[in-house]
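JOB MANIFEST
job_type = single_chain_structure
chain_count = 1
residues = 626
[input]
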Amino acid sequence: MSSRWGGLIEDVDQFDGAFFGISPRELERTDPQQRLMLEVAWEALEDAGLPPTQLSGTQTGVFVAIGNYDYCRLLARDDLAHINAYDGTGNTLCIAANRLSYLLNLRGPSLVIETACSSSLVALHFACRSLQHGESDLCLVGGVSLMLSPEPTIAYSQARMMAADGRCKTFDASADGYVRGEGCGAVVLKRLSEALRDGDRIQGIIRGSAVNQDGLTNGLTAPNGPAQRAVIQKALQNAGLKPAQISYVEAHGTGTALGDPIEVKALKAVLMEGRPPDRPCWIGSVKTNIGHLEAAAGMASLIKTVLALQHQEIPPHLHLKQLNPYISLEGTPLAIPTQCQPWPAEAEGPFAGISAFGFGGTNCHAILEAAPLRQRVNLSDRPWHLLALSAKSEAALQALVGRYQDFFQAHAQISLIDACFTANAGRSHFDYRVAVTANSVKQLQKNLAALATTAPGSWAKQTKLNQSPQIAFLFTGQGSQYFGMGRQLYQTQPYFRQTLQRCQEILRPYLKRPLLEVLYHGDNQERVNQTSYTQPALFALEYALAQLWQSWGIKPAISMGHSVGEYVAACVAGVFTLEDGLKLIAARGRLMQALPENGEMVAVISLKCSSAGGDRSLSPSGNRSD
C-alpha cells in the first residue's frame, strides 16, 4: 500500500434500523452502504418537500450507483457458521436500490449502475431517460461509496493510482494519483414542466447528457481523448447548446499524470469551437476538496455544480501550484480558478458541464442550467403559525426538537410561514408527535426551548390507530352570516381566495351585486343579510373553507349540512358540480326572499314521506291517497 490517507466519514456504523423497519439481526449483515443510501435518499425527499410515505404506489424510479463490496469481504472472514439468509440481501449490490423501492412501495424502475468512477453520473443519465420516456414520474438518483476493508486500496496502490501525500493535485505538475474518499449523495428528479406546474423548489435543470465507451484502446484502464470529446459533443447536441455557451466544466480531474492532460486536451478541442476570446470558461474538480468518491464521484460533482450555479460563484480548485507541463491553457479563455470567482455574465443560461470517466472506459457528460427565477408571492402573513414535529421514538422526537431549536437560532430571519409549511406538509408524520404555536421566530424559539426541558414521557404519545381517523364536514345553514366573514382567510390564503373568486364569476349572472362586494367591500353591510345574497354567500364561503381544508390534506369521509349547508355538503360529496350548486342556491335564495315579500299566506297542499311501511301521501283533508 503506497498511501494510508483517505477522506473518511465518521460513525458509518451508526444507523437507526428501527426507523427503516430493519431488525438488529438483519442489520448486522447489511452493508453500511445500503444503510447510508437509505438515510440520504430519505433526506433528499424531505429536502424536496415530498413526504416519503406519500409516494407509495407511484411510478417513482430508483437509480443507485454503488461498486464497493468491502463489507461482504469482512463478513466472509467470519466463521462460516455465522452466515445466514440476510447475507444475501445485505450485500447484493442491487438491493441498495431495491430496498428503497421496497421500503417506500415505489413502482418505477429500481436498479444499480456500476461503471466505476462514472457510475453515479451514468445513473443520472438513465434516470433522465426514464422520465423522458414516461416510465417514471419521479426519480431518486444516488451514489454511495465506503471503504471498509484494505484490499481495494492495496490493488490501486499496486496500479500506481494512489497519491503518496493523500491529495488530489489535479492539473498540477506534481500530480501523482488520487486519494480515495467516502461519501453518499442523492438528488430528486422530475420533468421540468411538472415541477413548474407543482410549484416545486427547482435546484437546477439538466439540459442534456450522453454516455459512451472508449472501446479498444492502448489499455483497459487508459483514458481515451477522442471518446471524451465525442461524449461531450453528444451531450451538447442533446442539450441544444453550442460549446461557447458553457462557462464552467466540473472535470473528472482525478489528479493522475496521464489522465489530466488527456482530459484538458479533449475539453479544449470541444469548448474552443466558436468561442470568442472574451468569453471565459473555468475548469475545476471537486476531487481536490474531498478526494475521489469512485461510484459516488459524479454525484459529488453534480451537487457542487448545482450549488455553484445557485450562488453564481465558482469555488477555488485546490492544490494547484504549477500547471502540469503537458497542459497548455495559454492564449485560450480557459482557466483554472485558484480563488473563488464570480460566474461569468451570460446573456442566457448560465450553463455548466460535468464529466465522469470510468476507469473501464465508460464515459458520461451532463449539461446543467441554472434554475429558473421564481417570483415570490408576497402574502399578508397569518398571525399565528403551527409547527408540527414527529418521530418514531420519544428520544428521536426530543432530538428533533433540539435540532429545530438550533436551526431557528442560526436562521432567525427565516420566513416562519415557509418553515412551518415545510415541516407540516413536506414531512412524513410518525407516532410520536408534538405541535408548537407561535407568532414569530423569537416566540417559536422560546416555546421550543420550554418543550425541550419538559420531562420525558409527558408530552409524547404514541398513536395506536391502524388507519386514519374518519372525518366529517358539517355545513351550517342561514343565520350564521355576517359582513366580512372569512376576510382574514381571503387576505392570507391564496387557495381560499381563488375559490371565492371562482364562485363570484359563476354567480355573476345570478346576482345583482358581485359576491365579494357583498362579503367585503359593499357600501351596504346589511346586504349580506338579504336572503337572495345570504344563501349564495354562505354556500361560497363554506365551499371555499372545505376546499381549503382539503388542500391541507383534511378530507372528509362524510359531509352533511343544515338548510343551505345541505347543498354545500352535496356539492362537496360530488352530487352535483359547483356551477350547478351555485345556480341552484342562487335561485333558492331569490325564491325564499320573494315569498315573505309577497305578503300572502301560503298553504301546504301535499305532504310526502318515506318510511319502512312504504310511501304515504296525505291530502289536505287527511284522507289517504295512493
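[summary]
Residues 531-551 form the longest helix (21 residues).
The chain has three domains: 17-370, 385-452, 472-598.
exit_status = 0
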